[in-house]
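Memo to structure team: turn this sequence into structure tokens by end of day. - J.P.
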Amino acid sequence: MLVWPDLVFIEFICAVLFTILIVGLAVMVDSILLDRANPAVTPNPSKAPWYFLNLQELLLHMHPALAGVVVPTVALIALGAIPYWDNTPEGQGEWLSTPRAWLNLRVGAAVGAIGTTLLIFYDESKHIQLFEMIAGKDSWPEQLNFMRGLRGIQNEINWPAWTLDVPLGNVLRLDLLGLPKIELDWNIPGFIVEQFIPVNTMVGLPILLSLVAHKLKIAQTKRDHMVLQFSGFIAVYVTLTIVGTYFRGEGLALVPYTIFADPSH
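Reply from structure team:
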């Protein structure tokens, strides 16, 4: 196929059809608009652009430094490292060239999408609502309140007072090396909820997925594992974007999707 006229002609036809579609939608469907923007009033919810809503969704489940800096940086480095890990010349330039590639794509995408959805539901205490729908209102045992979500571990467990305010300067004695003393207090429950559990989840679950896939002979080569992991990554990315875009309402609460704007707000 030549760039001209073959490719350019196809692109031109696509552009014309896309323009007709957009014009048709503009004529037949009213835009979802609210009142004129007021710079003195922050909208509720206040959302990032759609392409950053996956990161905003992560902000609800972990420390802001993780969601906004560490996770994107590590993800970009990991994506850039794929060609150095999967460096076999076989099947180069071909999509899904290995015999098990399609299977790994489906498994990775399914596990990524379903697993992410279940984790969001857990952190939003949807399992409590399901339990009380079956067993009755207010039937969730109080002694299990720490399982309501990640924040339950921090707020519902009677942590010793010293764990809430550990002076790091007394633990990491950098002053003995001639460095400035650390003037920072460490909240251990907050660290567990905002950093330790999210990091171990993001690292551990992909490793567990690869181990199980290898054991079940789903992924046998480096490329199989890369297809599996990349498919899972894209599924997580898309799922977080969809949830952040369509299912976060006032106060970023998880709500059912509606395309209709509330005229009272």
